[in-house]
Amino acid sequence: IQREIGDRFGEGITLSNLGSVYDNLGQHEQVLEFFQQALAIAREIGDRIGEGTILNNLGRVYISQEQYPQALEFLQQALVMIREVGDRSGEGITLNNLGGVYDNLGQYQKALEFYQQALAIKREVGDRAGEGITLNNLGLVYQKLGQYAEAEPYLLDAIAVLESLRPAELSDENKISLFDTQVKTYRGLQQVLIAQNKVETALEISERGRARAFVERMARRNHSDSSEA
User: Fold this and answer.
1) DSSP classification of residue 7
2) How far apart are CA 4 and CA 40, in angstroms?
């Protein structure tokens, strides 16, 4: 319909949404096809905000495929675009994604630099979910570096932030993503504490993580029962 009436802006949004659906399905070829079409339209009509968002999405797709040079290329373009239009929230997301690329490449100092920049922006704009994820990322990088004392406060703060989020404020997709992050945070913190010979505290965190997982499972089951009813 959008093509029929010549709504190029709407067409670009729908193509991007289709890309997101295929992304969730793990069908990477279709993801890239739809995002590339959406990117071409955003550039054609001068939609700078949309262009930055799609570039970021493309970078994220290449991260999931472990194609890091391509991911860097798109994310660096996205960062320029997003800063140009003053999208602080998008800037925080892109910086976190860039940190993820360098993290996967084993360039941990660069990863820390981008994660720290992302954390500052996420706190500035009040993105609590994003703050929790970036705190987790910082803690896990310090863990990889064997700097356990530095990792511990980041992971503790990540747990505090993630546990403070109200489920009603999150989409189902975000709930699943954040729960997966929480699992990694609890596990990483336990390992960091054991490495520092803080065994009792590690056991407490283990129990806390299991309790949290139980609550999440019950919440999902109740949501499913409610939907069926």
Assistant:
1) -
2) 18
Q: What are all long-range contacts of 21-25, with beta carbons under 8 Å and residues at least 24 apart?
A: 23/57, 23/61, 24/173
The predicted pLDDT at position 229 comes to 46
Distance CA 125, CA 105 (A): 29
pLDDT in tens, 121-153: 999 999 999 999 999 999 999 999 999 999 999
**In whole angstroms, what separates CA 217 from the centre of its chain?**
22
Of 25, 26, 84, whose CA–CA distance to 50 is shortest?
Answer: 84
Q: Closest Cα to residue 208, out of 169, 156, 151?
A: 156
Average pLDDT over the chain, rounded to an integer: 89
Residue where the block lists tokens 């997709």? 173
Residue type for 227, please?
Answer: S
Question: Would the pLDDT of 24 be above 80?
Answer: yes
Q: What is the Cα–Cα distance from 217 to 70, expressed in whole angstroms? A: 37
- For 92, 129, 150, the CA distances from 83, given in Å and listed in that order, are 10, 21, 30
Dist CA 16 CA 58 (whole Å): 10
Angle formed by the axes of helices 172-195 and 199-228, nearest 10°: 170
Q: Residue 120 above 90 pLDDT?
A: yes
Q: How many helices (H) and strands (E) does the chain have?
A: 11, 0
CA geometry: angle 122, 176, 29, nearest 5 deg: 90
Residue 58's Cα: distance from chain center in Å? 14
Q: Whose CA is closest to 112, among 138, 145, 134?
A: 138
